[in-house]
């Protein structure tokens, strides 16, 4: 492995791509600590030291690499782009024009990407306004007695919104630069960087709360086991064999080859976990604006806010399973795959082309997604359940979703570096 990395840096073209990617990551991390105009940085640090728990803001802060609570120019992180990308994918089901663009190939994809950029900027304006409002009202730092935005004039707040929105646009551009001139998917690597940057602080908070080196060692072992489970499942595939019949086009013979359709156990990725976490965090955020003595506020604080509450866990599992099936149904259309196979003379051995093929693919996808959704729920809950068993506060930005993203992006990036090495040296990381 180390020799493979050494060969990667000895290859001029690959070294240039790696250094360019690392340079963009450094710029991204530096921008996460530059406060936005109008923010009192010492007061922000004081509030961070005594902040309360807020699951929704904690989730956004996780994906921004801690920049949200710093109220920096990159406070929104990559979340507006993630949200915009998911919305555009969901709109393909509702808006026929989007589905037609998706089928047009590269030109249609470029148009959808342009729509995603516009929507990202619109969401960034909305989210920056929300973050600034919560900071002024004391919701961002509950219990903190100092003002993080001393000057709340209209001009100052407008400049803050413009700065945070511009920061989101810059992050989006940096991610696209990595995809074009670096190694790996730029947006995914920026998310990876944000989450990995929060790991040391999360591990330190766990070590301070478990009360003993033995319990901390148990937590580390569980994390390693979960990482191994994620690597094993993410690499697993159900390969459906496909045979293409021979056909004559002019004087040339085409087809006659055999291939397969690779279907991953977890086709939805980490999206179901993010959706479920975001939706479950909304009631707690709304309850913070209500009367603390009200019955519904106390019920929400007791049953939905704590991650260890039985109702929270049950709803979390059900939402993960639902969104796993929902997102898989959007991203994989058995009817479309069956039509494309029939168009090019392909068929699954033993299955008739057309409608029977679509029904068979739907049957396979349903079974695989059932196992994949249970796997997602298990990975998302296992770290929390272990921390509950050890008596550690679970309202920390460290869980199954973080491990899923970090391991998934890491595997994909290593595969790309490995393919680059094999093109030049015929030898990758694995011999």
Automatic annotation (TrEMBL):
GO terms for biological process: intracellular protein transmembrane transport; protein targeting; protein transport by the Sec complex. It comes from the Bacteria. Pfam families: SecY. Its main location: membrane. One of its GO terms (cellular component) is plasma membrane. The chain crosses the membrane at residues 18-36, 67-94, 115-134, 154-175, 187-207, 213-233, 309-332, 374-392. InterPro entries: SecY, SecY/SEC61-alpha, SecY_CS, SecY_dom_sf. Keywords: Cell membrane, Membrane, Protein transport, Translocation, Transmembrane, Transmembrane helix, Transport. It is found in: Cell membrane; Membrane. It is a multi-pass membrane protein. Belongs to the SecY/SEC61-alpha family. The central subunit of the protein translocation channel SecYEG. Consists of two halves formed by TMs 1-5 and 6-10. These two domains form a lateral gate at the front which open onto the bilayer between TMs 2 and 7, and are clamped together by SecE at the back. The channel is closed by both a pore ring composed of hydrophobic SecY resides and a short helix (helix 2A) on the extracellular side of the membrane which forms a plug. The plug probably moves laterally to allow the channel to open. The ring and the pore may move independently. Component of the Sec protein translocase complex. Heterotrimer consisting of SecY, SecE and SecG subunits. The heterotrimers can form oligomers, although 1 heterotrimer is thought to be able to translocate proteins. Interacts with the ribosome. Interacts with SecDF, and other proteins may be involved. Interacts with SecA. HAMAP family: SecY. PANTHER family: SECY/SEC61-ALPHA FAMILY MEMBER. This is Protein translocase subunit SecY. The lineage of its organism: Bacteria, Bacillati, Actinomycetota, Actinomycetes, Micrococcales.
């Amino acid at each position: 492995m180390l020799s493979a990395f050494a060969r990667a840096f000895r290859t001029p073209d690959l070294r240039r791509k790696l250094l360019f990617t690392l340079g963009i990551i450094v710029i991204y991390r530096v921008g996460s600590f530059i406060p936005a105009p109008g923010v009192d940085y010492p007061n922000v640090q004081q509030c961070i030291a005594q902040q309360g728990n807020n699951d929704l803001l904690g989730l956004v802060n996780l994906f921004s690499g801690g920049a949200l609570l710093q109220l920096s120019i990159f406070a929104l992180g990559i979340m507006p782009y993630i949200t915009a990308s998911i919305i555009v994918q969901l709109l393909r089901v509702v808006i026929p024009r989007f589905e037609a663009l998706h089928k047009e190939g590269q030109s249609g994809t470029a148009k959808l990407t342009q729509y995603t950029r516009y929507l990202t900027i619109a969401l960034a304006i909305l989210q920056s306004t929300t973050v600034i409002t919560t900071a002024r009202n004391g919701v961002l730092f509950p219990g903190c007695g100092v003002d993080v935005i001393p000057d709340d004039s209209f001009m100052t707040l407008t400049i803050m919104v413009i700065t945070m929105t511009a920061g989101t646009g810059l992050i989006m551009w940096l991610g696209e630069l990595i995809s074009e001139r670096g190694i790996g998917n730029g947006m995914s690597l920026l998310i990876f960087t944000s989450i990995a940057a929060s790991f040391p602080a999360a591990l330190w908070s766990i070590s301070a709360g478990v009360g003993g080196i033995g319990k901390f060692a148990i937590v580390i072992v569980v994390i390693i086991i979960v990482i191994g489970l994620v690597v094993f499942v993410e690499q697993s595939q159900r390969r459906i064999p496909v045979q293409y019949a021979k056909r004559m086009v002019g004087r040339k013979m085409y087809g006659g080859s055999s291939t397969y359709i690779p279907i991953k156990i977890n086709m939805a990725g980490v999206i179901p976990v993010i959706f479920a976490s975001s939706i479950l965090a909304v009631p707690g955020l709304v309850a913070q604006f209500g009367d603390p003595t009200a019955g519904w506020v106390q019920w929400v604080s007791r049953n939905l806010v704590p991650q260890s509450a039985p109702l929270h866990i049950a709803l979390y599992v059900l939402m993960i399973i639902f969104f796993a099936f929902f997102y898989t149904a959007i991203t994989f259309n058995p009817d479309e795959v069956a039509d494309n196979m029939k168009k090019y003379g392909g068929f699954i051995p033993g299955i008739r082309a057309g409608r029977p093929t679509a029904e068979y693919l739907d049957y396979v996808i349903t079974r695989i997604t059932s196992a994949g959704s249970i796997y997602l729920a298990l990975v998302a809950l296992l770290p929390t359940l272990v921390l509950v068993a050890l008596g550690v506060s679970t309202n920390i930005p460290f869980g199954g979703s973080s491990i899923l993203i970090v391991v998934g992006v890491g595997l994909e990036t290593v595969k790309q570096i490995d393919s680059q090495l094999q093109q030049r040296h015929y030898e990758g990381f694995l011999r």
